[in-house]
Design goal:
Layout lengths: L1 H29 L9 H19 L2 H22 L6 H19 L10 H18 L7 H20 L7 H20 L6 H21 L6
Length: about 220
């Protein structure tokens, strides 16, 4: 009886966390045009902090800890990138790079390549290399940090494909993460993209959601 009550509490609490995630995602995206406003960075990180509790409740072992840590460092990266000017750009990039590393460690469990998913490896690799080719000439002193980060993005996609126990939702999650960051890269180093902030945040929030949801779902043989 006590275990059933605890299980029901966890399920209900997770529903509230997902609700908080959705409410604050919509709030932040719908107020992008009014930035900077007081505590906008808090509105931005609340969805990620809400998601970060779900792996602790729902994902056992090191996998849950890796996903949790990745989300916490994502929130830290969001805070650093929200600081005035570009003083903390390299630190924000580092925080997100560490978050990607945590996700990769979570995804790389019982590695196997299924034939049905093999084509997806080339999608991640070709897409990543294409973005690198486009922005590399304009990176300047950010060349090495950005290329390292881009390599982590590509490997995030690869690891989402080759982890035997990975739910299929992790693949679009990794792809959306790559799309979000590639929009940032193109907008920062190549050409200005109309409504870039909207597309960046829309794909970013969806990516984090799919990573948490896909990691929470038990083994899928698709």
């Amino acid at each position: 009886m006590r275990l059933q009550t605890k299980s029901n509490f966890i399920i209900s609490f997770q529903k509230y966390l997902y609700l908080i995630f959705v409410v604050f995602c919509v709030s932040y995206i719908s107020t992008l045009q009014y930035r900077p406003y007081s505590f906008s960075y808090i509105v931005k990180i609340i969805p990620i902090l809400a998601l970060s509790l779900i792996p602790l409740l729902n994902i056992s072992g090191n996998k849950g800890k890796f996903i949790f840590t990745g989300l916490i460092f994502s929130a830290l990266g969001d805070l650093l990138l929200a600081m005035e000017g570009n003083k903390f750009l390299i630190f924000g990039l580092g925080a997100f790079g560490f978050a990607l590393l945590m996700y990769i460690l979570a995804f790389l469990r019982n590695v196997v390549l299924r034939r049905k998913r093999s084509i997806l490896l080339f999608v991640f690799i070709i897409y990543g290399l294409a973005i690198g080719y486009l922005i590399t000439p304009n990176l300047g002193k950010m060349l090495i940090p950005v290329l390292i980060y881009l390599s982590l993005l590509i490997f995030l996609g690869i690891s989402s494909v080759i982890g035997k126990d990975n739910n299929f939702l992790l693949i679009p999650g990794a792809l959306l993460f790559m799309i979000s960051d590639s929009i940032i890269g193109i907008n920062s180093f190549l050409i200005k993209i109309p409504n870039s902030s909207f597309w960046i945040m829309l794909t970013y929030f969806q990516a984090q959601f799919l990573i948490v949801l896909g990691s929470s779902i038990k083994k899928n043989n698709n």
